[in-house]
Amino acid sequence: MSKQFKRENRYIVLKLTDIEKYLDDDRRKLLDFIAGNIRDGRLLEEKPTFKCVVVEQDWPEYEPTWQAIERRVTGKSNASKDTDLEAQIKYMEREAEWYTEKARVKAPSWQEEADMSVAILKTLTDLKWTYANLKEEGRKAKAFLKSHGIDED
Question: SS3 letters for the chain?
Fold first, then answer.
């Protein structure tokens, strides 16, 4: 039986540029003091210091990152090729939308992002075509095995 996965807030993340922008010197010192106490406490308990990757919610990698964590937590890390391809397609669609929006907002100085968007959309189209063909070939193979009385396992 696989584990149930629930997204939860487990960390407080403060962007360094926001700390510099919104806190005065006294509050930055206080924050540094608090962070030092937590770091020291972890060291006393022989816990490693945190090394984390933060993915902001408006980045195209956000949902695929959550999906990867969910697969690991629920024990579905070895997902089927269909699921992997579907996740890759969704990721590329979101990435294309992200680059397209950046290019729209920042045009014409964002020509590189617009070019990247076109390249991603072309790759996405190719990937969807390949995925559809692989699914069809899989159906044909299953039908062939079944017609010859061969169990798929």
Answer: CCCCCCCCCCCCCCCHHHHHHHCCHHHHHHHHHHHHHHHHHHHHCCCCCCCCCCCCCCCCCHHHHHHHHHHHHCCCCCCCHHHHHHHHHHHHHHHHHHHHHHHHHHCCCCHHHHHHHHHHHHHHHHHHHHHHHHHHHHHHHHHHHHHCCCCCC
- 25 half-sphere exposure, CB direction, 13 A CA radius: 0
- How many domains does the chain divide into? 1
CB 14 within 8 A of CB 28: no
d(CA 101, CA 80): 32
Please tell me the distance from the alpha carbon of residue 143 to that of residue 150, in angstroms, as a whole number: 10
Q: Is there a domain that residue 108 lies in? A: yes
Domain that holds residue 113: 80-147
Domain-embedded: residue 86? yes
In a domain, 98, yes or no: yes
Q: What is the pLDDT of residues 27-76, one digit of tens each?
A: 999 999 999 999 889 888 888 878 888 999 888 888 888 888 888 787 77
